Amino acid sequence: MARTIQSLERAAAMLRLLAGGERRLGLSDVAAALGLAKGTAHGILRTLQQEGFVEQDPTSGRYQLGAELLRLGNSYLDVHELRARALVWTDDLARSSGEAVYLGVLHQQGVLVVHHVFRPDDSRQVLEVGAMQPLHSTALGKVLSAYDPVAHAEATEAEREGFTPHTVTGLADFEGVLDLIRARGWASDVEETWEGVASVAAPIYDRRRMPVGAVGITGAVERVREDGELRSTLVAAVRDCARAVSRDLGAGRF
User: Fold this and answer.
1) Distances in whole angstroms, Cα of residue 53 to Cα of each of 33, 37, 47, 169, 212
2) Rounded (10°) angle between helices 27-34 and 38-50
3) Which of 21, 64, 91, 110 has the most CB atoms within 10 Å of its CB?
4) Quick check: 15 and 33 in contact, CB under 8 A?
């Protein structure tokens, strides 16, 4: 069995302790409950406090769970609710488009794929849930960069790598691309990340009308485009899927 890190085990035990019972506990209470010296308990609590996982009441000096845990919990729930709401609609999109479907959310400086529906044929495919995609060159990433201020800052402040001759790397040109996405409501990636591959994506909103993710299709250029243009039926299908998921998340009609 792999060795565990004792300090992390103790920190986790403190968080569980504060999550139950009286919710607010003094240093002596925490130390006694976990069988720790006061100095050890105080050091761990101070670290958790600095990270926002624990808060200390200025009057009583007692400790309670911090707002950062709530934020992380909401993020976890949001992603899982997003995926749950999107299951049926993404399956339908894969069937109607004949292409692979990806559901992505902003994570660190990229797009985290949280759901992947295989292209509905007999070809060999690899599940890409958990994979990261760049913000500046993929359709999913550009949608998030256009509508999510945090993603926009990440994409514009970071170095934009040129993956192919078609990748837009200049800041002014990239901002122009985002303006176009906002004007038409969807994004594309035609061989900007991978040669021979094209994608179309649209934003997903929650009940607060905030962008919480993006959904898109990806396939060979010759299937996604026709006469040099993206197939309008595919664009419409992706946008319809995004709207349907958004409505299920409480965004209403838009």
Assistant:
1) 19, 21, 9, 38, 24
2) 110
3) 110
4) no
pLDDT digits (tens, 9 = 90+) for 50-94: 988 898 988 889 998 887 776 666 566 577 888 888 999 999 999
Give the ranges where the chain is alpha helix by DSSP (H): 6-19, 27-34, 38-50, 67-97, 139-147, 149-157, 171-184, 221-224, 232-248
The pLDDT, as a whole number, for residue 72 is: 66
Contact 55, 65 (CB under 8 A): yes
Global pTM? Answer: 0.71
How far apart are alpha carbons 85 and 246 in whole angstroms? 9
Instruction: Note the Cα 107 to chain centre separation in Å.
Output: 5
Beta strand 187-190 pairing with 197-205: antiparallel
What's the CA gap between 21 and 19, in Å, rounded?
A: 7
